[in-house]
Amino acid sequence: MSETITVPTMAEYMAQGKKPEVLFWVGCAGSFDDRAKKITKAFVKLLHNAKVDFAVLGTEEGCTGDPAKRAGNEFLFQMQAMMNIEVLNGYEIKKVVTACPHCFNTIKNEYPGLGGNYEVMHHTQFLKSLMNEGRLKVEGGKFKGKRITFHDPCYLGRANNEYEAPRELLQKLEVELTEMKRCKSRGLCCGAGGAQMFKEPEPGKKDVNIERTDEALDTKPDVIAAGCPFCNTMLTDGVKNFNKEDDVAVMDVAEMIASAQDL
Amino acid sequence: MQYIPNILFFLALVAGIGYFTMNMRKVIGRIKLGQEVDASDHTKQRWSNVFRIALGQSKMVVRPIAGLLHIVVYVGFIIINIEVLEIIIDGLFGTHRVLSVLGPVYDFLIASFEILALLVLLGVIFFWTRRNIQKIKRFWAREMTSWPKNDANYILYFEMVLMVLFLTMNAADLALQNGVASGAYTSETASHYIQAGAYPISQFIAPLFEGMAEGTLIIIERSAWWLHILGILVFLNYLYFSKHLHIILAFPNVYYGKIKPKGQFKNLDSVTSEVKLMMNPSADPYAAPAEGAEAPAKFGASDVMDLSRTQLLNAYTCTECGRCTSECPANITGKKLSPRKIMMDTRDRLVEVGKNVEANGGEFKDDGKQLLDDYILREELWACTTCNACVEACPVSIDPMSIIMDMRQYLVMEQSAAPNELNVTMTNIENNSAPWPFNQMDRLNWKDEV
After folding, report:
1. Phi-psi category of residue B16: left, alpha or beta, with phi > 0 → left and psi -120 to 50 → alpha
2. CB contact under 8 A, B335 and A70
3. Which fold, B260-279+298-441?
4. Which end of chain A has less Cβ packing within 10 Å, N or C?
5. Across the beta sheet with A223-226, what order do the strands follow?
6. Are A109 and B279 inside 8 Å of each other by CB?
7. Is residue A99 within 8 Å of residue A254, measured between CB atoms?
8. pLDDT digit string (tens) for B377-392?
9. Tens of pLDDT along A1-12?
């Protein structure tokens, strides 16, 4: 990943009088977290590869307010939401794609009530549609035949009933898809949701991510696939806890597709 | 004199149904202590949920063993209640097996009641062993001691006794019918026991009664008949005190259940107007509130009156099965949070507040207690990952998570009592629009990083 990649901003597009096909909402994790930035870059490469005309908000993007809302600070949430909606509406955004299920859920479900109406897609849904339109090639490569288990992000799965898009992509990678005991609508949380990512857990027997990683490791996977930067962090920490980081990778679905194509 | 049984029956019926109605009005009154909800939308979807989830038990079978057993008991309960209709007519008018005029249909009905009664009996015994012998974990949690534990067993005993009485009644009846037919019993009372019904199960019990004196047999039949119907009336009135209210409330509860995607939390309108005011450059920050303006609404919930009527209905509907708790990541990993306990606490507090209001002429007299801290601990509230597993797991569309969220809102917006790390996170969001202390101007730096 040495070459720089072109990432146009909405401000640049606006200056040129252009409108992109889709706005890529990067999210805080995707912008600042070292691990999640890799997912962002992988997704951008896929967008370029599929010749998607996209732009980002860049410095005009702000936290959607999801952690504030789930922590109980409705005030802060709505402040963030309304600032973002003003920016999005100012650019007349119609379609948003994001690699973070929390941003996805918030913009899709909670912004409309505050005046922000957009077609919002999770990146796995968007990649699936690119694949179906023949714009994106998803095929085996280095993951062919590898054992993969997919961890459902709560805010993509239960919260929005999307279980199939990431799995369809993984199947196209010709992997051996294996399910954990608790999956899909009964999938266990990674432990990060509801603003837990930003605080120490309450006293208990163990941490949620350890419980979940244990279950994932039971499937003897080569890769634990994720679709959320926070799940990714939690599971990566979990794998380290079991000293398995040399054997088992935790990867975002987008990273896997990009890596399979040697992008 | 001959009308005494009819009169007694009438009085029992009036007393049983009357007391039940009175208590249900209390339940409704208490639910109305909550905030009004608008459920006039999505009528079609709501009815479809009632048919699918409540009537169709679609979420029960997610756990096949408990689910199928529950369907047996549920179907048995509903179908056998047709028999209660006949019992009521017989009781009021002194007839005997009045529906036997239906002929073969009646035979079919009685036969199916009998088979269901046996299945219910076996199902309930199996339920009892799961709870008391197998000791399934979700029935032995921290909140499942004393009354909740006993309540569950009382319900099972009740159902066992009712089914045994039903089969005994039929067996004694059959023995009498056979006796009359063979000419062994000739009294006028015995002649009431006309040939009616088919008895695939109690035919195996009837031989136990063979050779008994006619009078004894009639006493057995009458006792079983009376105890069965009185038992049903007592059971009906037990519901109000019990978690078993779900057999009625599950239906309205599913109707009022959440229609929107589970991830969509409600936006507080009271906050929206404040935020709009703040973001309006021409608003006068020093303007006095308009004459007669409403006092600002309380944010979030610290007691049951702050919750919505749907949430209070949820609390009365919960039958403490614990499917929510057994799927809760916080509970699984040993945290204090149990979504079932959130519902049980809400109901307990609602009953307490309801009694208070009823005793004080419709006004709540401050009792120095509230739902927060006196029932639900902050430690429980902060352990929630908002993963919606509890909401997904509930077979009757209860939403424990919404109560947790409303109480967090109270803690944060009314009391500024968030855990310190979350205060730091929120300050970051306020200052630099990210949960971490990174400058918003650096948001696009990733594109140039190697």
Report:
1. alpha
2. no
3. Fumarate Reductase Iron-sulfur Protein; Chain B, domain 2 (1.10.1060)
4. N
5. A176-177, A147-150, A223-226, A249-252
6. no
7. yes
8. 999 999 999 999 999 9
9. 445 678 999 999
